[in-house]
Write a structure and sequence with these properties.
34% of the residues lie in helices and 14% in strands. It has five helices and five strands, in the order αβαβββαβαα.
Length: 140
């Protein structure tokens, strides 16, 4: 299935404006980003952190939720910006993954989430089940 088949609205194969990116974060219950890293080239982490009450976020890019340690200082990473903006959930990748497996896992997560939305199935269960769709199970 595609996102369109599952009834999702969005921007595909086009570069979002900063305003569109903000709108997708603030106007919907679920924001899905598929691309390199976590979309910071479209909206900076400081601007994301200034938003309020954004929905759940799926960041399906390589190292999209990786944090960076700075010795005695707090770690940094865009995941903290999404959480500061009020997202109840941020799902992403801690390391680089192959695009084929990432596509499979993403579609599995989204389709299972959509099917089980009313049944209160935990996101961790959905993600665990979706990881089984990976071809390279022990690398990704």
């Amino acid at each position: 299935p595609t996102f369109h088949d599952l009834g999702f609205k969005g921007l595909i194969e086009n570069v979002p404006t900063e305003q569109e990116f903000v709108s997708y974060l603030t106007d919907y219950d679920l924001f899905i980003y598929c691309g390199h890293n976590a979309g910071e080239k479209y909206l900076k982490r400081d601007d994301i952190a200034k938003l309020d009450n954004i929905g759940a976020v799926l960041l399906m890019g390589c190292s999209s939720v990786a944090s960076h340690n700075h010795g005695d200082f707090d770690p940094t990473g865009i995941v903290y910006s999404y959480l500061t903006a009020g997202s109840p959930l941020v799902v992403g990748n801690l390391w680089p993954v192959t695009d084929g497996d990432l596509d499979k896992v993403t579609m599995s997560i989204v389709s299972q989430w959509k099917k089980s939305y009313q049944d209160c199935v935990s996101v961790s269960h959905i993600i665990s089940k979706s990881r089984k769709s990976c071809k390279l199970k022990y690398i990704n």
